[in-house]
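wait is this the right file?? whatever heres the structure
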């Protein structure tokens, strides 16, 4: 049985968060809600900033 490492679980979880955030951004754009759009974009940037070191570290 193939076991995932902690990093794989973390990146998969963060990837699903990004997918959810993209849906929130789409909903905010569709409804014209600038506050929800701004919050979603800031949250997306924050998650990406957390993910970048994890991806760069990848093979360690």
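ok assuming it is, sequence goes like this
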């Amino acid at each position: 049985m193939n076991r995932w490492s902690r990093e794989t679980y973390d990146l998969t979880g963060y990837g699903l968060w990004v997918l959810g955030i993209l849906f929130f951004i789409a909903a905010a754009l569709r409804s014209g809600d600038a506050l929800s759009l701004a919050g979603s974009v800031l949250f997306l940037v924050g998650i990406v900033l957390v993910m970048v070191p994890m991806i760069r570290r990848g093979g360690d």
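The chain has a mean pLDDT of 91. so i think its the right one actually
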